[in-house]
Sequence to fold (2040 residues):
Amino acid sequence: MENEIGKILDKLLDDFQDKGISRKELTKKISELYFEDIGFAKVDHHRKLRRGFPEVIFGANKTKHQTIEIAKSILKYSNKLLITKADRDCYIDLKKDFPRLNYDDLSQCIYLVPEDHDNNLKDGIVIMCAGTSDIPIAEEACISAYMMENNIKKIFDVGVAGLHRLLNFKKEILEAKVIIAVAGMEGALPGIVSSISTCPVIGVPTSIGYGTGFKGVSSLLTMLNSCSPGLSVVNIDNGFGAGYIAGLINRQSTI
Amino acid sequence: MENEIGKILDKLLDDFQDKGISRKELTKKISELYFEDIGFAKVDHHRKLRRGFPEVIFGANKTKHQTIEIAKSILKYSNKLLITKADRDCYIDLKKDFPRLNYDDLSQCIYLVPEDHDNNLKDGIVIMCAGTSDIPIAEEACISAYMMENNIKKIFDVGVAGLHRLLNFKKEILEAKVIIAVAGMEGALPGIVSSISTCPVIGVPTSIGYGTGFKGVSSLLTMLNSCSPGLSVVNIDNGFGAGYIAGLINRQSTI
Amino acid sequence: MENEIGKILDKLLDDFQDKGISRKELTKKISELYFEDIGFAKVDHHRKLRRGFPEVIFGANKTKHQTIEIAKSILKYSNKLLITKADRDCYIDLKKDFPRLNYDDLSQCIYLVPEDHDNNLKDGIVIMCAGTSDIPIAEEACISAYMMENNIKKIFDVGVAGLHRLLNFKKEILEAKVIIAVAGMEGALPGIVSSISTCPVIGVPTSIGYGTGFKGVSSLLTMLNSCSPGLSVVNIDNGFGAGYIAGLINRQSTI
Amino acid sequence: MENEIGKILDKLLDDFQDKGISRKELTKKISELYFEDIGFAKVDHHRKLRRGFPEVIFGANKTKHQTIEIAKSILKYSNKLLITKADRDCYIDLKKDFPRLNYDDLSQCIYLVPEDHDNNLKDGIVIMCAGTSDIPIAEEACISAYMMENNIKKIFDVGVAGLHRLLNFKKEILEAKVIIAVAGMEGALPGIVSSISTCPVIGVPTSIGYGTGFKGVSSLLTMLNSCSPGLSVVNIDNGFGAGYIAGLINRQSTI
Amino acid sequence: MENEIGKILDKLLDDFQDKGISRKELTKKISELYFEDIGFAKVDHHRKLRRGFPEVIFGANKTKHQTIEIAKSILKYSNKLLITKADRDCYIDLKKDFPRLNYDDLSQCIYLVPEDHDNNLKDGIVIMCAGTSDIPIAEEACISAYMMENNIKKIFDVGVAGLHRLLNFKKEILEAKVIIAVAGMEGALPGIVSSISTCPVIGVPTSIGYGTGFKGVSSLLTMLNSCSPGLSVVNIDNGFGAGYIAGLINRQSTI
Amino acid sequence: MENEIGKILDKLLDDFQDKGISRKELTKKISELYFEDIGFAKVDHHRKLRRGFPEVIFGANKTKHQTIEIAKSILKYSNKLLITKADRDCYIDLKKDFPRLNYDDLSQCIYLVPEDHDNNLKDGIVIMCAGTSDIPIAEEACISAYMMENNIKKIFDVGVAGLHRLLNFKKEILEAKVIIAVAGMEGALPGIVSSISTCPVIGVPTSIGYGTGFKGVSSLLTMLNSCSPGLSVVNIDNGFGAGYIAGLINRQSTI
Amino acid sequence: MENEIGKILDKLLDDFQDKGISRKELTKKISELYFEDIGFAKVDHHRKLRRGFPEVIFGANKTKHQTIEIAKSILKYSNKLLITKADRDCYIDLKKDFPRLNYDDLSQCIYLVPEDHDNNLKDGIVIMCAGTSDIPIAEEACISAYMMENNIKKIFDVGVAGLHRLLNFKKEILEAKVIIAVAGMEGALPGIVSSISTCPVIGVPTSIGYGTGFKGVSSLLTMLNSCSPGLSVVNIDNGFGAGYIAGLINRQSTI
Amino acid sequence: MENEIGKILDKLLDDFQDKGISRKELTKKISELYFEDIGFAKVDHHRKLRRGFPEVIFGANKTKHQTIEIAKSILKYSNKLLITKADRDCYIDLKKDFPRLNYDDLSQCIYLVPEDHDNNLKDGIVIMCAGTSDIPIAEEACISAYMMENNIKKIFDVGVAGLHRLLNFKKEILEAKVIIAVAGMEGALPGIVSSISTCPVIGVPTSIGYGTGFKGVSSLLTMLNSCSPGLSVVNIDNGFGAGYIAGLINRQSTI
Fold:
């Protein structure tokens, strides 16, 4: 544990016992101060308290060593773990210490959920994608939302080149509390979905395409310029971000 | 009324009376078919049924004549009206026929709400902006969310150059059900807000800035690339879109 | 007439009379050589022979004087004239000399057709646009295709935010020989139209929109990346180009 | 077969037998509803009915397994197949089940045509390219148009750096019903071809070039800005799209 | 005169008289040091010695006062003056003091040449432009090259949409020592000219065009990517730069 | 004064008197909390304590009313004021209340310094610009650095097209503690200056230029890519930012 | 030989013998018609007659087979050959048939010159580069200009970060007839060279750099926006193009 | 040693002995003239005199041979060496000749410092980075500043997604003389740091991120547009440049 924080915590606990600050006050102060310094990273343990979800590791630009050490640090205080854009090799190494770990080959997500996680999942989130090639990003969104205790309805490969495939799922669209629509190429799916739905839609552009697709920029621009209100957007290929927001929105509906 | 639709409606009503289709079935079929053709526009009357909000007029690229005729058409079937990016001149003309119409000079919105609109507003939406120059877009978001029956908490001019101004409103941020954060220049506000909040945040980049601000592109990119999950984004200067989405999300929390 | 060309023509006529080259050969050679030099412009008279349509004047970057002189030069050898992006002032001046001239305020087109032009128009071209603000470009396409002796079916304001408005015209879409679909904002209309039609579709992005619309670039990219085959694209706001191509395609269907 | 569609089909057939809906009505309804769900894809079987060509597989972003399964699904209901941007490995696997399959190394297309396909090809399509390096995309266009029952005239390596090479083919250009012009680098070929032809020209920019070629963007812009009317454009390297449109246009000339 | 320079000049002259440095040495040293400081500008008088042409004033971003004061300073030591992108108002004021001054309305150039300037002009430079709208930039190039004592052959409005207009001037093209080709829109002219000429060609993109012309960027890219060697390029709308380079090249041919 | 802050201040003062927190501790806490809410702005009064300079008003996107009210609020607690990009009209209104106010027409800065400001200026900052058109931005930098109690050495119009003009000031360059180099067009000046100096150089790209200057982007890129280490960069036209940084650096040299 | 051309040649020779057209006329007509069709390429043999240099092969996007066949075709009628961006493997294969072939590892050029090529080289061309990493492109320019019978003066690694290195070569710069200046990174070298020289300068941006160098775009923009007249530019990494233009300019000085 | 320089040096030394020029004058003249020509590079030896640091080798675009020869040349006259972006292989070869050489695997820097280098390091520089993936660039900055005789305080992984991690280091931030803040993704860290610090801050965008991060462009734009004055920026991934500038600034504070 980082030293300076340690001293402040000691002082806080002294205050708690000596000067009668309340348990709620104590918890609040701790939640503002806590992180762990492991040299190349400062693991944000208190994010789980603050935002209901521990720090998520973006695996793509880290060494295997860094990813594993950060993961181990998180798992000291959390029974949930999500590493996105991670390769199977990293999973195999981590699994030795954490046998309940899962890996999804399509989305390249390593994840861990508590044993009773599936007992209490909530309906309401629909995740769609336009083409077969968009599935990895859609699955990343599914896993992320699933980790926030949701049961996902998946509707894949319903791009606008065959509008009847999409319209076949009108019922699911109308019953959703929040929809994630994932699309590369021209990215028209989220706008069309938004125009026939009654709930918020989150568009996820993917880098699928070629030429003037510009690795997802065309798809992103389509979504940002949609005439159909109700649609907001996240970064290209950011399935995790969309799944997380959908989880926040769906969580609201029980309050 | 458009002819082909007219015939179908006649047939539907015959069916209703003769073959006993239910009132619910009738309404559903009508809601799928209905719009009004006024020559230069096909007014989407059934959008109000479908999405809980009538068609909104984007005033910026239309002639005054076009805007007024579309507005009159909408008001035949709706007691709500919203025209964004509209000039005062257009408002003055419309007000002759609709004396209860309002105009907001900052955001250039013309709007009309039912007489009892304010009796039943819902709390939960916080709308923030980074600088004084971002207020017009923030106000457009406020009016849009207000029209969806929300009572807005406004926190303006709390950009990150003076972090203490923002942190002063931590309580409001933590109590919100959904937050809209409007920012031009470097657009860092929504990411910071998202990192200290527990609800979904909608970022609205504005075209405020100069040089490499590129009329809002820099701000948009900052929001799309935020490391802080929970943030989704709409088009530059799209206050209406953000207000509408916030309305959809906040509506969920009562269901 | 330009001198060097004049000498060649003299020689060609000598050959025609003396050495017995055929009338067809003579016409072909003349059509390869002919243009008129009026100082600041070389008017391409033989384009009408070569391509079935005289040179069209793009009014936007020319002085009124230049536009009028080029127009007069064209009308020496042609009973058709089209000036796009031209202001009313220029029209009024030209009309003094050519009283049968027309002006379309929406598209800012000055045009002249032969007296019997309307006797022989051909069906098959459908021109659609997504929003009221796209009408000026759609009308430019209509006038251009009309000048190539076509009778246009217009379907305006059928953007994808209200999909039922578009699907209402499925019959017209299926019967078309060639469709022009004009759209700004996210530009999704042409791709959707293409996916439900059986003929070639020409997409025309417009500069209508704001923020990341980037004056039509977003719309253009959407069309170029459409997953729905059968769609080709012209420059932003190039209604004339689309109308001209539609005319070329529709002309094929009689051969 | 997907369940919900199955039930609707049962009901349709009952209606056909019991309530006397016509065979034409039955076929139309089926063609609006039908696709096959194979998990990671919803194969659009009825596209062949709707658009005269089955769903085409874009091989570049799919796993070999996905490509092969989609191909097999298409071939259950179709005697035509086209997979673009596919590697030879995928071809070899598929050929085991479909021995009449072909592979074109240059364009990386896997394709299958009916046995009697070559008996009934139609003339009228000319496909040109500017340089030797553009041939792969030109060949993709050739195969695509050939699959739509056309006999293609190929004119390759006629870029504008040696104008006499192009002008040597003036006769073929003037006799064409529709021309595809493929070009990378500065992309001037389609505009020049359009200026000397009388039929519609489809420009295909390629990603061939270096430096400010920007992987085809320079070529695309040249084509979009061509002063020569009659030219429309498809995405960079989209040989298939151009071949398909040429097929649609050439099909018109027989109606 | 600027003080520090003044002192150095005093010292140089002392050296010349006392220590016997040669007149040539003296001149060389002076030419390396000399400029005049008029507060908001340091007029580079010795540029005329160094480069054969005095400093040229780019009028577009200067106040009228600044432009006039710099012009007056130049004319103290030079009998030549060129101000580009200058308005007529500035010309009228300057003409009061310098009655032999000229103004060209099309190119917005103010210029002055010595009285005997026209006695000794040199042939060899051809300046072409693609369209009527490109003439202002072509004229700026003409005046710039003329001021470097050249007699210009102008060939305007010969864009590639009417290739026969260009080919009609093959003789002039083949006889040129250096060619300037000015073009907006798709900018194909310089590449075509280069492919049929035997001398260096300088391409000048203009900002003429619309939509994806991007104010000259499309034209510039076309020229940079031309497959036809022999073509180099200057900035968009930089007629002066092209004229100056043509002057430098043509000057070589007499040495 | 804003209420919540007020209460906290009351409590702080009680603590100061009752529990013996030191005056230094008190000041530090106050400086973290303080701002004034004037409705459309939250004026950051404590920035002067925190950063040695009060909040600076960017006048360009504000109404005159907003600018004046924010200015008045700042002047309640500060004897310094800087408004950049402000028009003369705003200055005239403010001057009625603050007669010692100054306005600089070139840079459009309104500014106020304490009466004894000039008694204690520090040498060390050199501000250079490449051309006459860059002077407004250079002057904005001068005023900003002057307000931070510096005496500026100005060297204007020394762009690299006349290298001798620049080299003439080698002594001033070598003696500087920090240099600001302002340049539009190709922006080469800061890199050249950096290569011959021994102190940090701050490059300010300006929007001066045309065509591919892209309103300062070309100049910015040149500076960012300079091979000459020692150069850092601010936003296009951000003279204030550069002046402020130079002030911070020069202030270091006395500590 | 291509058939249609063959027939025309037969006819031309008949005319030569029968109708007395002159040998010069015959040669001119042949030079307009001639190229060789080798299937995937139409080799432009008459380019050597027309432009003084045979067709140059851009090796980067061609298969080894294509490159070798085109090379062999060129060498049937030419004693010069240049292949740029070619790998050593291709060189080794070609060398078996053409033992006098050369390969330059740095620039990846394969080239062949006549045996007496070095007897008659002309001085006047100086080729400079800014950094060691720019040498490959500078060498490509050297070989290209050398093949046009020039003796090149090379001055490498004289970038502006050490201005004294450049100024040391002032004599060579002032004596040059034409200079090529090659630079990546910020690309300031050509502008500085131009400002101290009296001849035309050709700038070659290279793709050397990182980050905002954008693979040569920053360098290109610097050159296009140079305030120093006399500089024109070619595509990024286009050493060949620059060498060819320098050859054309230097050839002028003997006429 | 390069010949021409050699002769000038001989002459200078003669002058020193014969005509009595001072030792200071001699040193100054030598420092303006000296570099070593090793064929593919002109090593700028006198940079160490001029700027207090020898030439730094950017290893990324050089061959191993080139890098090693330049390094050896520098080490003839310097006891310091820095090679950035260099691979370990190059280090191993160089270490044979220079056993005291160091290599940092994270930043890929080869470096050498004098034996007594650590005896005299200066405090004042703080280097921070936002995420673990930004460490390589932050370490490059650390080594560069360390070589300029500074003792660096490192604060890594304190990105704004966990604001409390950053605020924990407020003391270090307030005590710094100059701060380097390194960040990829949305790049908000430097602006936030600047807003709470009192010294100059240098922002270093990194290419870490995905999608619309555009390899560092998003991060760069955020920093350039920061509302918080006091922040200047260097090229993407230019850790060396930032370290060098920080060294220049920190050196000022002792004068």
Remarks:
- The first helix of chain D runs from residue 3 to 18.
